[in-house]
Design goal:
alpha+beta, about 55% helix
Length: about 140
């Protein structure tokens, strides 16, 4: 009977201690592409840094409160009336500019663009249609009022 109790005790001890986490060192390094990596063993990278890892009991109300604060900080603030007016004026300018560009594309005999040297490069038929479609989309986006 004592042997059976000892076996049960050892099984319970093993099961209860299986959930314990023994944190080791955590290393951080940045590769040549600028990506940050983490690992439990040091890499051969020069820029690796050890990080202290700690654990504790999680307090759900504190976690929820912190998450609510983070979510509230991410929400954009309501724009003021002046900001809305400035935004509307910017929208009107973009609308007028887009309409003028579309009119120029529709009426021009030989539409062109300037290259990096400032020289004219005349558009072929496919480029003209693509430019018209792009500018028409801008007109629809900015001239919704």
């Amino acid at each position: 009977m004592i042997r059976k109790n000892a076996i049960v005790f050892l099984i319970m001890l093993a099961v209860s201690s299986a959930g314990m986490v023994f944190a080791g060192d955590v290393y951080q390094w940045t590769d040549e592409d600028g990506n940050v990596h983490y690992g439990d063993r040091p890499a051969s990278e020069v820029s690796e840094e050890p990080h202290a890892v700690s654990s504790g009991i999680t307090d759900p109300p504190k976690v929820w409160a912190r998450n609510e604060l983070v979510a509230a900080a991410r929400e954009p603030a309501e724009p003021t009336a002046e900001e809305l007016r400035a935004q509307a004026l910017g929208q009107e300018e973009k609308c007028a500019t887009s309409k003028a560009r579309l009119q120029k594309l529709l009426t021009s005999r030989s539409p062109y663009r300037q290259d990096e040297n400032g020289e004219r490069v005349y558009l072929d038929e496919d480029e003209i249609w693509a430019a018209r479609e792009r500018v028409q989309n801008q007109v629809e986006e900015y001239c919704y009022f």
